[in-house]
Amino acid sequence: MTRTLVKSKKLVCTLLTVAIAGCTNLEEKVIDEVLGSDSAKPENALAAAYNRLSNATFVDHGNVFALQEYATDEALLPTRGSDWGDGGRWRVFHEFTWGPDEGVIATTWNNLTHGITQSLTAISTMNSQDFPEKALFLAESKGLLAFYTFHTLDLFGQAPYRDPLVEDAPFEVLQAAEAIDALIQQVEALIPDLANVGEQSTHPGRFTKQAAYGLLADMYLNRAVFKDRYANSFNFSEQAVDGNGTDMDKVIHYTSELIGSGQFQLESNYFRNFDIDNAGRPEMIFVASQDNNTLRGSDSDLAYMPMERNQKPSPANRGTNASCITPEFYYSWEGNFDDPRFHRHYQYDDGTWFMNDGTDVSVPATSIVPNSGGLPWFHFNRGIMAGQQYGPTLLPSGTFEMTADGRIKVNKLYCEKNTTLLMDFTPELNFDNPAQSVFTQAQINRGARVFKWEFDPENGNGTSGVDVPLYRLGGIYCMRAEAYFRKGMTVEALADINVLRTSRTREALFDNTPGRALDALDEKTLYNEIGYELYWELNRRKQMIRFGKFEEAYTAKPVSEPFRRIYPIPQATMDASDAFTQNEGYQ
């Protein structure tokens, strides 16, 4: 393994200060109970390592999501009139102009490397003590270390490390091309000590054997990219680390362990995976657990960011009119707009369907936001939203406009910051300057929106109870289908894609019709199908790189150079030490 070693203790401390975000308060919710703040306790050390999953890193739009999605055709955050300019910090990802001084990149690096540090601390703490769960907790800590390290190597090509079992160990910088093999071996070695999900008080929020299988499949699927980041094409048929088969054989092996276990089932209602109460749903393998409390930094950004400010699930909360998708991704669904993963209508308890097409007059006010003093809950439809939008109007009194018989009146909606502009979400973006993702105040309605994640009306843009799936069964089928396809096993790949398509059903409004099976599968179709299943789930950048799509131009995104496949090491980290070498293209 290629490593850069730093032996000065003073320099190690400096790097840990610069490369890693500041320490978090260990007085937090851990696993299933509130623990004290004594970091010497094994459960608290493990808690701190888990905390970084859901404290911004994998749940906030400005962290891993920004780097994995805003730099793709699946998501962008344009400047909208007077909003979301922010010095261009969001536009740079769509326009591919980011540099080492970009704050969003630095925040993501800090949070990921903080996760590495907290995992190392947990390993060191547990190794020095004897307690009944030692083997299990050590394995979980090492699994989390591998998970954070993998994502850091994926995004930045380098990752900090310090051996937690060696006193006064030197600081090391892992390099992706060599580190990926050692990382795979480390996770494979953990499996005997990990619990099966549901055993030993574990659940999908814990790093279990099944989480390890998901991570190993992910690492093998992307190993060829790690090995030769800037290649014109990748060698997906390389021999596996242990010499048994190829990388794709290993992907098939580990995904088949999950698919064939019987522990997980595909949801017929695709959007149940992204509901407020999705904890423990049957597809969930490994998640960033979120709870509506102040003990850990849960976040509703994935739902809050695309919703317009005049779209109000309750009189107390609203969206923010920020992120959207490109027309390229929207129209990739051509011929599949009836796919159950594209859109789903909401039905109220009295049978009323919210159609969102101008035919709605009212919906019942019997759905109530929990712990809100009786505020009515208006349910928007789910999926990708385009065209004129409808919903409740908020009166100056702070209440929804109601009908004479006490129902919520449904109106044609206008944008909040341009009250004469209809809330007509246009798939086309049509920027005035084709090279800049900037809208005027008269254009803030543009961009189809993703309502995949359920908005929590009790907490608005604050905390959320939506667990963010890091590995779920639908994604596992996608990984196996891709591995089959890369091995030339098209029949098997098509079968997996069709399992996904036909397991999802439309709502009762359409007689619970299942999705349609495909007759054939080529590379373009496979690429699109993975997008249909996994959009806005922090996967698109990796997918685009594997399929050779990442450099292509699309709306306001120019043809880019291969060096953009990874991000720069933040300038603050580079300024603090010469341990890191800046990535190609960012010097």
UniProtKB/TrEMBL annotation:
<keyword id="KW-0472">Membrane</keyword>
<keyword id="KW-0732">Signal</keyword>
<dbReference type="Pfam" id="PF07980">
    <property type="entry name" value="SusD_RagB"/>
</dbReference>
<feature type="domain" description="RagB/SusD">
    <location>
        <begin position="282"/>
        <end position="555"/>
    </location>
</feature>
<protein>
    <recommendedName>
        <fullName>RagB/SusD domain-containing protein</fullName>
    </recommendedName>
</protein>
<keyword id="KW-0998">Cell outer membrane</keyword>
<comment type="similarity">
    <text>Belongs to the SusD family.</text>
</comment>
<dbReference type="InterPro" id="IPR011990">
    <property type="entry name" value="TPR-like_helical_dom_sf"/>
</dbReference>
<dbReference type="InterPro" id="IPR012944">
    <property type="entry name" value="SusD_RagB_dom"/>
</dbReference>
